[in-house]
Every structure is written in C-alpha cells, then in structure tokens.
Amino acid sequence: MPKPPKRIRKPQHIKQTIWRIFSYMKGYRLHLCVSVLCILISAGASIAGTYFLKPLINNYILPFVGQQNPDLSDFIFMLSVMAVIYLSGTIATFAYSRIMLVISTSTLFQIRTELFDKMQSLPIGFFDSHTHGELMSRFTSDTDTLRDLLSQSLSQFISSFVTVVGVFTMMMILSPLLTLLVLLMVAVMIFAVRTIGSKSGMYFQKQQQAIGAMNGYIEEMIEGQKVVKVFCYEERAKTRFDQLNNNLCHASTSAHTFANILMPTMGNLSYINYAVTAIFGSIMAILGRLDLGTVAAFLQYTRSFSHPITQISQQFNALLNALAGAERIFQLMDELPEANLGQVTLDRSQKPPMWQFPQKNGTIKQIPLQGNLSFEHVFFHYTPDKPVLHDITFHAAQGQKIALVGSTGAGKTSITSLINRFFDLSSGVITYDGIDINQIRKEDLRGTLSMVLQDTHLFTGTVLDNIRYGRLDATDEEVIHAACLSNAHSFIQHLPEGYHTMLTADGSNLSQGQRQLLAIARAAVANPTVLILDEATSSIDTRTETLIEQGMDQLMQGRTVFIIAHRLSTVRNADQILVLEHGQIIEQGNHQSLLAQKGKYYQLYHGMFQLS
User: Fold this and answer.
1) CA angle 76, 82, 86 (to 5 degrees)
2) Are 480 and 499 in contact (CB under 8 A)?
3) Report field, pTM of the whole predicted structure over 0.85
4) Sorting pLDDT into bands at 50, 70 and 90, what band is 530?
5) What is the pLDDT of residues 185-198, one digit of tens each?
6) How far apart are CA 200 and CA 260, in angstroms?
7) What CA dihedral angle connects 597, 602, 603 and 606, to 10 degrees?
C-alpha cells in the first residue's frame, strides 16, 4: 500500500489571494456595481414577498372566513403586487448571473494570458524541476475551480449573505423571542460548517496536488510508450499509476465525502429548526402573544434564513477549493523570472552586426559580432551539493569547430547550456567577442546562437512553419534553401503536400531521421554566428549522415561550432577536441595531437573502431 499523503496545510494567504483575484476585475467596476445592485434587488424581492404573508393572512384571509361573498379586489391587488415583486427578483437574478458570467470569463482570460506569459519568462531549471502534467493542471483544474468561484459561488455567496442579513432584520421585527430560538439552531449549523468544511478544504487541496502528480505521470507514460514496451515496463507502470490513482481516489473521496454530507446535515438541521420554531410560534399564537399572520411569515423567514446559510456552507467548500487552485496559480506567477540584467544589445542593421556596449561616460562602444567564445576558470553546479563543471578554461575563435567528448554526465551539455545562459555559472567568466555574456541581453545573445538537439521537438503546423521557427521573418525561398542545405528537401518533396504538409503530435508521421533533418534545417535558416550540435546526427543512419556531411560543412563555414558527439568519427576534423571527465577537461587538442598522447581520447577512439 502507498504511504498516506502528508498533511497539507490550508491556503496560507487567503486574504491576499482574494484581493489579488479582485485586482483582475478593476476594469469591470461598473459591471460589479450593477451586479451587486441586482443581487440586492433579488434578495430584497424575496424578503419583501415573504413579508406580504402577514397582511394577506391577517387582513384578507382570516376576515374572509365565514363570509359568503367576500370582496376579493384588494386581495387580488395584493397578489398582483407580490407577483411584480417576485418577477423583478427573477429578472435581477438573471441579470447578475449573466453579468458575473461575463466578468468571470474575461477575468480568466487575463489570468490565463498572464500565466502563459509568465511561463515564457521562467528559467529552464524551473521546468526541469516540475512535471508537465503538474504545470498543465494550473491551466485546467485550477482555473476551472476559479471559474466556478467567479461565475457562481461569489454571486451566490453575496446573495445568501444579503438574504441572511435582511431576513434576520425582518425576524427581529416580527418576534425577537423566536429569533433568539432560531439563532441557537444557527450556532449549531455554524459549528457543523466549521467542522466539516475544514476537513473538506484540506482534502480538496490534496486532491488538486494528486491530480497534478497523476497528470504528469500519464504524460510521461504517453510520451515514453516505446520505451515502456521495449523494456517490458507495463506492469511497473501500472503499479505506479495505481499508487497515484489510489492517492487521488483517497483525497477525492474524502474531499467530496465531507462536502456532500454538509448539505444533508444542514438540511436536516434546518428542518429541526423549522419544526421547533413552529411549535413555539403556535404556542405563542394560542396564548395571544403573536397573530397568525406573523407566525406564518416568521416560519417562512425561518426557511429563508436556513436556506442561505446552507448555501453559504456549500459555497464555503467551493471557496476553499478555488482559493487552493488560485494560490497554485499565483505561486507560479510569483516565480522569479529568468534574470536578464544585460545591457549590451545587438544592432543587426549594420554589416557586420555590432554589439552596442554602453560606457560609463554615456557613449556607446561598438564591437563587431564575430563569434569568439572564451571560458575562463568556469565552475558550475545545479545545486550546491552537486558540482558539475570544475575550472573549465578554453578559447573558441571565430570559425573554429570545438568538439566536446566524454562519457554521459561529464558536463558536455552543461557547457552549451551556459553559452545560451540557460543557467548562470557559479564562478568564472564566459566572454563573447570579449564581452562578459552576463552583460549581454539574453534575447540578443540567443539571437546569434542556434542549437540542434538530440531530442527534436516539432510543433503543430506545416513543415514550412517548423523550419521557419528558426527565424520567423524568413521567406519561403530561404526556408527551402535551408532545407536543401541540410538535405531535407528531397524527403519533404515526397510528403503528401510537400512543404505544406501538416505535422502533429511532435511529427509522429515522420521518421526520427527526418525529424532530425528538419531540426538541422531550422538551425540553418536562423543563420547563426555560433552553432551548437548536441548529438545532432545521433538519430540519423550512416547513409543519411554521409549525405548531410557536405551540407553540414557548408552550414558550419565561417561559424563557431560546438559539437557534442559520441561517434568520434564525426569530430576528427574539429580544430579543438575537449575531453571531459567528471566535469573537468582532462585532455585538449586536435585529433592527431590527442592520438599522439595515447591518453583517454586514444582509448575512446580505438575502442570505437574495435566496436565497429
């Protein structure tokens, strides 16, 4: 059996969360005022209509008893007035429900937009530490609970509160003694709400977290189905899913159990309250302390009083659920964005493009974009207790090919991630054309770089759109030229609609090699100054790799290129080969010099040939 979930505290910042939700409604102040007015009219109509029972019974119904031909004209007039009051209440109810629907959809539109915009500014490390399913739940289940709060629960909560206050006032006017009796029963109801509602809120938050965990696991299993089947992981996958599903089932069952028993409990307490009030009201009427109309109106108010309290208790659960979801949304919004403190920009209007380096005296120093990269005593760790790179020092001149060789986990990809400023180095300096990359704005820095990763990601759209993703203003001719450069043009022409073929599900209708060719074409159309190839040809067969070597050579001409490869045959022509082991450069040189050293590279190189 899985371990029981740890105790989760209730929302920590309820007031701040509520005010933050309302801050998104600033543009709808008039709508909110009209909505509140309609709520007051709706509640007032219900209260006023109930009070009419007293004059109807005392002034009309009781006097008609025993009369043969009573005059019903005034009675009919009173009924007509009651009908108008109730009709106005119905119209007001429809109006505020419609207005709140408009406000809720518009507010959620703003929140989703801000949430998505925030995700675009978060660092890579954030996504490495959160599952996709967990992040998706912020856009789905969490926003759904917030929508229910804004469109229904909020207006019903206000309406119920106004009704309770109005009914209590009328009850005090009719009979303070019976009102005191009702308040005693209300105290019992409030105790039930607090006891049951607190349990419900705790389990609703557990449910939200369990949903996020399960969604993340499902997404991982869907993406990794080939791996699951190849390694016969089905039973283990089902066991793990059963654990997550069991956690969700337990949290959801507990949450909805407490939520569902609250309404029947409140309903039965209200019936008991009505019965006790009817008994005492009848006794007082018999003793002449109250008239029959007052008793009838008071009993109706008793039902009207307990019903909104029941509604408040019901909305209390929805409020807790929504606030739990809202806090998760706002927690994501409050995540620190990717730091971008650079002041150096790139002017592409000049030929060649120029770095614009502001000086202390107010002038701008211009430095031509060349692609010279230097690492000087660079140390890096993802977490303080797990160092990754140790004292990395090397220089990559313009147009050079730098190969990074080493076993898995040696730090090869970490070096390229630091060049892109996906992460900030712990100590040391990385310079780009003599400029500390921390001084360069990330947009301008990354605009000069292009990457081809081992794991290719294609977007929903045409082949043309996916290649153009490398440079959005590229013309169709430039896209086709890039495809020809990477030797992707041939297979694209054989697709059903050529460059206009739609790709879905990450390009599942293409082979892995074809997807990799599109990624190389995407990098080619970007026309980068620095090109990073992270196992770019690992998914391409030997024949295809041979076909694109010429195109790759053309693509790499005049560019600073970093190549990460396990096939040592692909790095023989590199100007520098860096051999990494445990985050350190243990050997450095070209192919011939490293072979002459007969060190680690020599062993790796001859080992590859023996394997082949």
Assistant:
1) 145
2) yes
3) no
4) very high
5) 878 877 877 777 77
6) 9
7) -150
